[in-house]
Amino acid sequence: MKTVTRRQFLKYSGVSAAAATSILSVDEIASAAVTRPLPLGTPILVVVTLYGGNDGLNTVIPYQDPAYYTARPGLTYKPETLLPLSDGMALNASMTGFKSLWDSQKVAIIRGVGYPKPDRSHFSSMAIWQTGSPQNHLNTGWLGRWLDSQPIDPMTAISLGSVLPPLLAGTKQSGSALPLGGLSIPNGQIGKACVRLSAKSQNDNPLMAAAATSMRNLFNLSGSITPVLAQPAPFADDLPTVAGGNAGGDSNLSQQLNLVAKLIAAGSPTKIWSVSL
User: Fold this and answer.
1) Are 173 and 187 in contact (CB under 8 A)?
2) Is 261 helix (H, G, I), strand (E, B) or coil?
3) Which of 27, 119, 238, 246 has its CA 20 to 30 Å from the CA of residue 68?
4) pLDDT tens digits along 35-74
5) Nearest-CA neighbor of 244 among 184, 194, 186, 185?
6) Checking DSSP bridges between strand 45-49 and strand 272-276, what pairing results, if any?
7) Domain ranges of the chain
8) 0.90 surpassed by pTM
9) For 215-226, how does the pLDDT look when each residue is reduced to its tens digit (9 = 90+)?
10) What is the DSSP annotation of 143-196?
């Protein structure tokens, strides 16, 4: 069996490329909402990342353009089944919620978004979306670089899930992860070995020390996360528990957004939220 050194373990733990990730619990966010709520009127950004494929032309449909029907025979929708917008565009019939927001002037649609010289690769496109850099390979995300310009605060940006998406990775600080049912801490001898590997060492460089600190924080919080998530938060009697929600995408987007909405309404001092599908 191949032996893995402590140095290799920390290197491959995934957090040594940028600032260490904080692991939060609903209880911690609830406490922050009470003690230091976000001032009224502060802009809040909720980022929804679609990790799977999405047929854009059958989401926002150019139903009055003959080219739409010519280019995709058998894959088009009949005009009478759609939800008309303006300028010859319509929404898919299943998007009644978006249509209501459109009618209330609460949603905008930006068409033709892409990057120069696209190579049609889903993975390249996702990497560019996360880093905001079409030309150069970066280890930080576009929101992570904004976080680097802000005072260090683990509550500023939160991603629902145990895995932080690259877009929230910064150099000085990164977004925090809110594990929602998908967090698993090893038990037995493996768990004890992981705890030993996360111990402080004078031989660690700064990045390895950050990785070890992140692991220790994870182990310290793991005992309280499960019971907290199993109960309603004190500020919302019907706060749901959510399974998954990691950076790989999940099928519970409505539950994730519901939880984010309640945490925002409670006054969480969070300016950026990240959810995924």
Assistant:
1) no
2) helix
3) 119
4) 899 998 999 999 999 887 788 899 999 999 999 999 999 9
5) 184
6) parallel
7) 6-54+132-276
8) no
9) 676 666 555 444
10) HHHHHHTS---TTSEEEESSS--GGG--SS---EEE--S------HHHHHHHHH
